[in-house]
Design a protein that fits this description.
The protein has 431 residues and is of the alpha+beta class. It has a domain of 184 residues: FAD/NAD(P)-binding domain, CATH 3.50.50. It is built from twelve helices and 20 strands. The strands form four sheets. Strands 1, 2, 3, 8, 9, 10, 11, 19 and 20 form a nine-stranded mixed β-sheet that branches. Strands 6-5-14-15-16-13-17 form a seven-stranded mixed β-sheet, sandwiched between helices. Strands 4-7 form a two-stranded antiparallel ribbon. A hairpin with a 4-residue loop joins strand 15 and strand 16. Helix 10 packs across helix 11. The protein starts with 8 loop residues before the first strand and ends in a 10-residue tail after the last helix. Bound molecules: flavin-adenine dinucleotide.
Amino acid sequence: MYRVSVTSGVSSSGSVAFDVLVIGAGPSGSAAAAYAARLGLSTLLIDAATFPRDKTCGDGLTPRAIHQLNKLGLGEQVTSDYSNRGLKLHGFGGSVEAPWPDSPFGTQGSAMPRAGFDNLLFEFAQSHPEVTTWENATAETPVFTGSRLSAVEVNHRGQTHTVKAGHVIVADGVRSTFGKKLGRIWHRNEVYGIAARSYCASPQSDEPWIHSHLELRDEEGTVQPGYGWIFPLGDGTVNLGCGALSTDQRPARVNTKKLLSFYASQQREEWQLGPEEDVASALLPMGGAVSNVAGPNWMLIGDSAACVNPLNGEGIDYGLETAELAVELIGAHPRRDLTLVWPHVLKTHYGEAFMLARTAARLLTYPAFLPAMGPLAFRGPLRKAVMPAAARLMGNLITDGDRDILARGWRLAGSTVTAARRGSPLWNSTV
Ligand SMILES: Cc1cc2nc3c(=O)[nH]c(=O)nc-3n(C[C@H](O)[C@H](O)[C@H](O)COP(=O)(O)OP(=O)(O)OC[C@H]3O[C@@H](n4cnc5c(N)ncnc54)[C@H](O)[C@@H]3O)c2cc1C
C-alpha cells in the first residue's frame, strides 16, 4: 500500500507535487508511468523531446518484449500488422534457422519503427487520468534533503519548475545525463556496443524472420566483433544495421556508418534493398555495467541502468520489465530506502544472465576468437548444440540447458575469464 503520497497539483510557490516523477518517456519511462497509474499514483511523465520522436534502434521485439507489451494490453497493436516467428543466423559459410522457442513468453516476435512504437507507449501512458505528461521538459537539477531526492528542477518549455515527488524513476536512456547528476557511473572497461541503423525499402519487408549476420567483415575483410542485422518491418521497409562490441582495452576501431554501408551493399541484391535512409549511430552500455543506480527514493531503469543484453543489444524488453519491477517495489515498500534494494532486485533478475553474457561478449572482442570459432559453430561438429543456443541467447530466451552449454564453453575458453569477471560492477552502489 502506497503511503508516501505528496499532495498533487500546483502549490502557491509555483512548485508541483506528484507521487511519482518519471524522467524520460521512452519505452521504460512510459511503461513505468502506466504501471504507477495502475497503482493509483499521481504521476508526472516528462521528456526532453516532443513526441513522436525517433530513437536509434534495430526496432526488434522478441517474444519476451511482446509478453511485456501484452501485460500492458498493447501486444495486439504491435503484432497485428507484422509479426515474426524466429531468427535466421548466417555466417562462416553456414545458416541456421531458429524459430522462437516454446517458452512462457510465447512464440511471436515483431518489429516496429521506434518513432511509432514509442509514441504508442507514450500515448498509452498519457491515456491514464493519473498521468500528467510534459514534453519539451528536461530534468536539470536534483534537489536533495539529506540524501533524499526531494525535488527536481525541470525546464519545461523554457520555464523552470520545481517538481516534488515521493519517488523518482529515472529512465533517461543511454547517456543518462540526469542519472549522472545522481552519481551514476558507466564502466567502459566492461563490454559496450557501438551500433548504427538505417531504413531501406525492400519487397521482402513481410518476411517473417529476422536475420543476423555474424560474419561481419569490413572493407579490408577483417571480421568485426559484432553482427549485422536485417529486421523486416512489414511496411515495405527493413531496419538494416550493424553493431560492434568494444571495451576500453580493446576498442572496436570501426566506423559503424561506413560498416553499415558496406554491409548493405553485400545484402542489396538478395533483399533488393533501396538506399539506406535515416542512418544514425549510438553507443550502448550493456549488461548492468553501471553503478549507483538508486538512492533512498529514486531508481534508474532501462538503458540508464545499462539493462541491455550484451550479446544482441536488445534493451526494450528490459526497459519494460524494469519499469514494472520498479513500480512494484514502490507499491509494496513505499517507505523503504531503495539504495541497496534496487541493485539487489536487478541482480536477482538479471545478474547471472548479464554476467555470463558480458563474459561471452568480452570473448568476441578478442580479434582471434570469432574467426576461429565461427566456422566451427556454423559448420563444424559444434553446430547442432551451439547454434540453437546462440539463437536463444540472441533472442534473449536462454534456458537452463543453454547455461550448461555456455558454462562448458567458458570452461573451455579458460575459467580465468569467468574468475576475472566476478568482481565486475553490476549496479554496485559506491556512494
Ligand atoms: C543501434 C541500436 C540498435 C538497437 N536495437 C534494438 C533492438 O532491435 N531491440 C531492442 O529491444 N533494443 C535495441 N536497442 C536498445 C534500445 O534502443 C534501448 O534499450 C531502448 O531504447 C531503451 O529504452 P529507454 O526507455 O530506457 O531509453 P530511451 O528509449 O533512450 O528513452 C530515453 C528518453 O529520455 C529522454 N531524456 C533524456 N534525458 C532527459 C532529461 N534530462 N529530462 C527529460 N527527458 C530526458 C530522451 O529524450 C528519451 O526520450 C538498440 C540500440 C541501438 C543504439
